[in-house]
Amino acid sequence: TKLFPVAVVTGASRGIGKAILKKFSSEGLSCVALASSKQSISNIKLGSHLHILHENQRHRSLAIDFSDWPRWTQSKKHYGIDYQPDCVASEFGLFDMLRSWSSSENKYYLAVLVNCAGITQTTLSMRTDPIAMARIMNVNLMSCVSLCNMAIKQMVRDRKFVPIKPSIINIGSILGTESSPIMPGTSLYAASKAALNQYSKVLSKEICGLDIAVETVNPGLVPESDMIKTLDTKIQDQLRHSMGPGTISSDKIASIIWDHYQINSRSRDVF
Ligand code: NDP
């Protein structure tokens, strides 16, 4: 039986997630691309977001609105598009592709989950209403936590035949680290990313016997991103000023995530 790795990438419709999807698919991995709605996954296309290098490489996209946590976690099926052989829209379970793509000759396994979906805040904490607060926490933290748990269960189920150490890579932010400049207007966003960092560290210890790598990567500012453009112009200027030397491109972040995945996958404890 031939084994094929699958990457599940959230926030894959735009920005950094799109760059990660392009990188992983152009390295030959089959990919499942997640974004918030039917509309946004309809923009995920072969050629622009997803590449095909070999005949056994398959791709799918899924629409899940993470702001609707915990309700989305209780849905067994989500609207999605399978790209090969033709584009077919249907309802799929999160990891259904591992079974439906597999055959007696080919087996697909979950090699990496990249939690990249994220939203920022647009007002100071005091002016942020509780619904906006819940959205930030549900997308940036709680949905990542649920996806980590779901992925770990799947990775453990398949561990007997999986030839590498699987990875969970969470995208934090420099604003959620201790070394970050303190930026007014990013309080809830920074808190969600700081919590994601700490969660990943403790989770990694909780599952240390399972041979799964869990880590958070904390990029600096991506000046051209939609996320930065949605911020108040004063905050944009402050961010550019304080992070000038720490700016980075989406493609560079994608190649850093790829390197992390490769290093982790080679460090399997038991074969
Ligand atoms: P973008 O705003 O360009 O893209 C955000 C992505 O998250 C989109 O794919 C979007 O999907 C998805 N998303 C947003 N809301 C939801 C939701 N409710 N449910 C499901 N998916 C959702 O962001 P970036 O590419 O700039 O950022 C990606 C990650 O990197 C984020 O976690 C961000 O915090 C982090 N980061 C960004 C930096 C920057 O400078 N831009 C710097 C450091 C970290 P849809 O198209 O459906 O809305």
Notes on the structure:
The protein is an alpha/beta fold and 271 residues long. It has a single domain, classed as NAD(P)-binding Rossmann-like Domain (Rossmann fold), CATH 3.40.50.720. An eight-stranded mixed sheet has the order 5-4-3-2-1-6-7-8, with helices on both faces. Helix 2 links the parallel strand 2 and strand 3. The chain starts with a strand and ends in a 5-residue tail after the last helix. The model has no long low-confidence stretch (mean pLDDT 95). It binds NADPH dihydro-nicotinamide-adenine-dinucleotide phosphate. The site of NADPH dihydro-nicotinamide-adenine-dinucleotide phosphate has 29 residues, from helix 1 and helix 6.
Q: What ions, cofactors and ligands are bound?
A: NADPH dihydro-nicotinamide-adenine-dinucleotide phosphate
Query: Could you spell the SSE succession in H and E letters?
Result: EHEHEEEHEHEHEHHH
Extract low-pLDDT stretches: none
CA gyration radius, whole angstroms:
18 Å
CATH class: Alpha Beta
The biggest beta sheet, please? 8 strands, mixed
Q: Give the mean pLDDT.
A: 95
Widest β-sheet, arrangement of strands = 5-4-3-2-1-6-7-8
> CATH architecture, please?
3-Layer(aba) Sandwich
Instruction: Compute the number of helices.
Output: 8
Strand content: 15-25%
- Whole-number tally of structural domains: 1
Helix content: 25-40%
Distance between the termini: 17 Å
Q: CATH homologous superfamily - what is it?
A: NAD(P)-binding Rossmann-like Domain
User: Structural class of the secondary elements?
Assistant: alpha/beta
